[in-house]
Automatic annotation (TrEMBL):
<dbReference type="Pfam" id="PF07992">
    <property type="entry name" value="Pyr_redox_2"/>
</dbReference>
<dbReference type="InterPro" id="IPR036188">
    <property type="entry name" value="FAD/NAD-bd_sf"/>
</dbReference>
<feature type="domain" description="Reductase C-terminal">
    <location>
        <begin position="246"/>
        <end position="320"/>
    </location>
</feature>
<keyword id="KW-0560">Oxidoreductase</keyword>
<dbReference type="GO" id="GO:0016651">
    <property type="term" value="F:oxidoreductase activity, acting on NAD(P)H"/>
</dbReference>
<protein>
    <submittedName>
        <fullName>Rhodocoxin reductase</fullName>
    </submittedName>
</protein>
<dbReference type="GO" id="GO:0005737">
    <property type="term" value="C:cytoplasm"/>
</dbReference>
<feature type="domain" description="FAD/NAD(P)-binding">
    <location>
        <begin position="2"/>
        <end position="227"/>
    </location>
</feature>
<keyword id="KW-0274">FAD</keyword>
<dbReference type="Pfam" id="PF14759">
    <property type="entry name" value="Reductase_C"/>
</dbReference>
<dbReference type="InterPro" id="IPR016156">
    <property type="entry name" value="FAD/NAD-linked_Rdtase_dimer_sf"/>
</dbReference>
<dbReference type="InterPro" id="IPR023753">
    <property type="entry name" value="FAD/NAD-binding_dom"/>
</dbReference>
<dbReference type="InterPro" id="IPR050446">
    <property type="entry name" value="FAD-oxidoreductase/Apoptosis"/>
</dbReference>
<dbReference type="InterPro" id="IPR028202">
    <property type="entry name" value="Reductase_C"/>
</dbReference>
<keyword id="KW-0285">Flavoprotein</keyword>
Length: 328
């Protein structure tokens, strides 16, 4: 393992990589696990102290001192990063505002029913959520003091955390002619357009058996499953990626677990009571189960994951009866 060095170039002809130290390493097979980087806003005032992005422990350490001495936090972006950070900061007693550019939080990653639930859950716990908010600048002298929106609204802040998505790292692949399309293009065995180079994780764009399109997932389970596929191929045992996508998010005392992908659903069945913060939302396209969002409902999550893996479609009427078990 070589730490503190980056790969500067891939030479496909002689199968070698050149490191930032100018050391050259040869390979028979190469796996690109190069992840993604945050989308940067590059707005006026963004370099002020107290403004940052969350990607690693270093970011957390650097921003933690502003949590200890500050009172007001603004989260730019109402995705999972923003909501999880908001919940954590409220637990420290900070005043928290989320600024979301779209018409609802979690717009990119989940459906309106779950967005509405989390909007209510956060606001009742003291989080101020502002949608359709276009941030245009940050103001302050050395440290941030305000977040400014293009409609003139100003939000006082001692700490600003920006979480507006990520972009896959594809420059290294592009430079050597490996096919790229919203990520490094791979097949179901994680092989790129080069027969000796694989790609996995956030950077990989792959054909999913659960959609009719090529997708890219940003999650720990996805990276782990793709690593298993690539490892099998490297050992001469071809393995097709067919794992059910799943995700999780912890906010306050609520655990969200998601199985499947809800894109393209045309009807939804709710199981349980949303007011009790213990329920699940089952997404169907006609009678075909696509995905399930589970709030504090681990049994439903396990059942849903098993159903999706087996490509089985449960009875919608049985799902709606929350006191009834769902047989897989």
């Amino acid at each position: 393992m070589l730490l503190g060095q980056s790969v500067e170039n891939i030479n496909k002809n002689d199968k070698s990589v050149t490191l930032s130290s100018e050391k050259v390493l040869s390979y028979s097979k190469l796996v690109l696990c190069i992840g993604s980087n945050p989308v940067y806003l590059n707005l006026p005032g963004e370099t002020l102290k107290g403004i940052g992005y969350l990607r690693d422990f270093g970011d957390v350490d650097r921003l933690s001192k502003f949590v200890k001495k500050g009172k007001r936090a603004v989260l730019v972006g109402g995705g999972y990063i923003g909501l999880e950070a908001a919940a954590a900061l409220r637990s420290f007693g900070m005043e928290v505002t989320i600024l979301e550019s779209m018409e609802r939080i979690l717009r990119r990653v989940t459906e309106p029913e779950i967005s509405a639930f989390y909007t209510n859950a956060h606001t009742t716990r003291g989080v101020n959520i502002v949608t359709n908010a276009q941030v245009s600048a940050f103001s302050g002298e050395e440290q941030v003091q305000e977040v400014i929106c293009n409609d003139g609204q100003r939000f006082p802040a001692d700490l600003v955390i920006i979480g507006v998505g990520v972009r896959p790292n594809v420059m290294l692949a592009e430079k050597v002619g490996i096919e790229v399309d919203n990520g490094i293009v791979v097949n179901a065995q994680m092989l790129t357009s080069d027969p000796d180079i694989y790609a996995i994780g956030d950077c990989a764009s792959f054909p999913s058996p659960f959609t009719e399109a090529r997708i890219r997932l940003e999650s720990v389970p996805n990276a782990n499953e793709q690593a298993k596929c690539a490892a099998a191929s490297l050992c001469g045992k071809l393995k097709t990626y067919d794992a059910v996508p799943w995700f999780w998010s912890d906010q306050f005392n609520m655990k969200l677990q998601i199985a499947g992908l809800s894109h393209g659903y045309d009807n939804i069945v709710l199981r349980g009571d949303t007011m009790s913060e213990k329920f699940s939302a089952w997404y169907f396209k006609e009678d075909i189960l696509l995905a399930v969002d589970c709030i504090n409902s681990p049994a439903d999550f396990i059942t849903a994951k098993n159903l999706l893996t087996a490509r089985k479609n449960p009875d919608k009427h049985l799902i709606a009866l929350s006191e009834k078990a769902i047989i897989v």
